[in-house]
Design brief:
12 helices, 13% strand, 48% helix, binds nicotinamide-adenine-dinucleotide, 6-stranded parallel beta sheet
Length: 288
């Protein structure tokens, strides 16, 4: 396939590099110029004549601007695959723009981080026409290990923000429970052995344990270097609250998690640290 790839940052560059091993890839980024990729002079040039144009951009506003630039340059029948994490409304607006231009659009945000992008082990959660999704399966197979079709346009973003709302909430709950256990004199290893095999278990405890030296290797064992940065968790929690407000969904735990990550990143020392560094944050505090 001929692929245009727009947004060659931390995630986009390794994803494009994996595709370029077996497909013709023309990349574009306003700033980044990674080695080993053929680069175009503009987003429209990267999109021209491509079967699939992939975007991996910071937010919905930029995605809408880039979509307006590339859709007129794309061949009718081609697919715009957006893998960025953006608000549901922007994903649906871009799908409507694509349809008006005779194109298909799939929103397929990813889970798996920079490691997953580099190793080709991302998980894609996709919204949009099933026929277009099916044509992209060979590309999902190169960039990832799993792709789930979640329904109509925007549903990939919906799945991503619901998943990450659960993740933010369970990480905070796991961290505060470790601190309570500490203060009650419960050994962290014993706490892990019980919870990881009991009804309090979760991915945050079992796979990504926030306590250093406990459980499998995680960013806690590496000085809380990300991993998944606290500011990216904050971004996703804000997107989930935007969506919850628009849909009139009552999400009090998601709101509390968003407020805690906002304080951590913007008023404390959370910026640049892994999102599991909530544990040392709680450790330093009392109830007031
Ligand atoms: P990044 O900031 O490293 O990369 C974004 C790139 O887009 C940058 O290189 C930037 O120069 C480029 N860009 C901005 N405006 C542009 C434009 N108009 N035209 C072309 N290029 C433009 O971000 P990232 O970490 O690669 O994340 C990309 C997306 O993936 C985000 O939506 C993020 O939320 C999501 N995501 C990131 C991770 C992660 O661990 N980094 C994990 C899952 C999802």
């Amino acid at each position: 396939m001929k692929i245009g790839f727009i947004g060659l940052g931390n995630m986009g560059a390794p994803m494009a590099a994996n595709l370029a091993r077996t497909h013709e890839v023309l990349g574009f980024d306003t700033v980044a110029a990674p080695d080993g990729l053929t680069l175009a002079a503009s987003a429209a040039e990267a999109a021209e004549g491509a079967d699939v144009v992939i975007t991996m951009l910071p937010n919905g506003t930029i995605l809408r601007t880039v979509a307006a630039e590339i859709h007129p340059a794309m061949t009718p029948g081609a697919v715009h695959l957006d893998c960025s994490t953006v608000d549901v409304d922007s994903a649906r607006a871009v799908a409507a723009m694509a349809e008006a231009a005779g194109l298909s659009a799939i929103d397929a945000p990813v889970s798996g981080g920079i490691g997953g992008a580099t190793n080709g082990t991302l998980t894609f959660m996709a919204g949009g026409p099933k026929a277009a999704f099916d044509t992209l399966v060979p590309l999902f197979d190169i960039m990832g290990q799993k792709a789930v079709h979640c329904g109509d346009a925007g549903n990939g973003q919906a799945a991503k923000i619901c998943n990450n709302m659960i993740l933010g909430v369970t990480m905070i709950a796991t961290c505060e429970a470790f601190v309570l256990a500490d203060k009650l004199g419960l050994d962290r290893q014993a706490m892990f052995d019980v919870v990881s095999t009991s009804s309090g278990s979760s991915w945050s405890m079992n796979t990504y344990c926030p306590a250093p030296g406990i459980g499998p290797q995680s960013p806690a064992d590496n000085g809380y270097r990300p991993g998944f940065a606290a500011e990216l968790m904050l971004k996703d929690l804000r997107l989930s609250q935007m969506a919850a407000e628009a849909a009139d969904a009552d999400t009090p735990m998601g709101l509390a998690a968003m407020e805690l990550y906002a304080a951590f990143v913007e008023a404390e020392d959370g910026a640049g640290r892994d999102f599991s560094a909530m544990l040392p944050r709680f450790e330093k505090r009392g109830r007031n």
